[in-house]
Amino acid sequence: KSVRLIVERHYIGNVRRVDITTPTVSVVSAKDFTLGDLQPAIGVKIDYVAGLSGSNIMLLKRSDVRAIVDILMGSTTKDEDFEINELNMSAICEVMNQMMGAASTAMSDFLNRMVNISTPQAFEISSLDEFVEKYFPSNGMLVVIRFKFSIEDAVESEFMSALSMDLVRELLKGFGIEGVALADNADLIALLGVFE
Predict the structure, then answer these.
(1) Which of 36, 39, 126, 161 could be 193's S-S partner, Cβ–Cβ 3.0 to 4.6 Å?
(2) How many whole angstroms separate alpha carbon 135 and alpha carbon 179?
(3) What is the rounded CA–CA span in Å between residue 194 and residue 130?
């Protein structure tokens, strides 16, 4: 199955196709969570401010963030020269804001209620232990969705979306699905992971 998204950057007059495919869904405990090949990673967090409660954290490779920023800025930067500064963080937040903003509109249609998100906040993950301590809920479990993605002529990679169990159950309830194992709805959860 494939979800195809297009990010259009009107301000530089260029269009790149973004393909997101082959999602895998798992329920992960704090002690088993790992970034794997995404290290070193950048996180982008959005909160739901209307229609849903909870947050979604997108986790991307630092090198992929560099590639995305280069596309936006029309520049070419070596990995060792890429800086995690306000300008670059703002650029990746803008991409996530466009994608997730459009997705929240789609979710509003699906759930038949207004869904709004906060402005995305980007952050560097310098310590996995600190990330787990700060973002894993008190019950120690998150739903993690892994995606393969490509950006036309630029990136072939993967990213993760981490959602709370309560948020996933609320989303499934909105689709009339309650009281079943999350694993039985892996495809739908994966799709919702893109829509967030």
Answers:
(1) 161
(2) 26
(3) 26
